[in-house]
Amino acid sequence: TDILYCDDDLYIMQRRGSDGQKGLVFALNNTARWNGRLVITQWASTRFIPLAWRGKDSADTPEEKWTDGLGASEFWAPPRGYVAYGPA
After folding, report:
1. How far is C-alpha 39 from the geometric centre of its chain's CA atoms?
2. Quick one: CA dihedral 21, 66, 51, 39, positive or negative?
3. b/e per residue 12-36 (b: at least 16 CB within 10 A)
4. Is the pTM of this model over 0.90?
5. Mind listing the pLDDT tens digit for each residue in 13-53?
6. Three-class secondary structure of residue 84 per DSSP
């Protein structure tokens, strides 16, 4: 695993994957509003779909994300919640 961003309110990490597992990006939010950050992942030009998510008072489906040619994208999580994004 690699920590891509971390502060008191937001934690974003990636699992690289192995043995046929694709890996994932996980975002954990400790604020009362949607929160996210631009990070650089190991996956360039890749679509990410939300696989699992939950917020304290929100079950809204997070948006799909695309990384650019350098692997950068914004990953967001709901209020007091989390999202696991998987590469498609």
Report:
1. 9
2. positive
3. bbbbeeeeeeebbbbbbbeeeeebb
4. yes
5. 999 998 889 999 999 999 999 999 999 999 999 999 999 99
6. strand
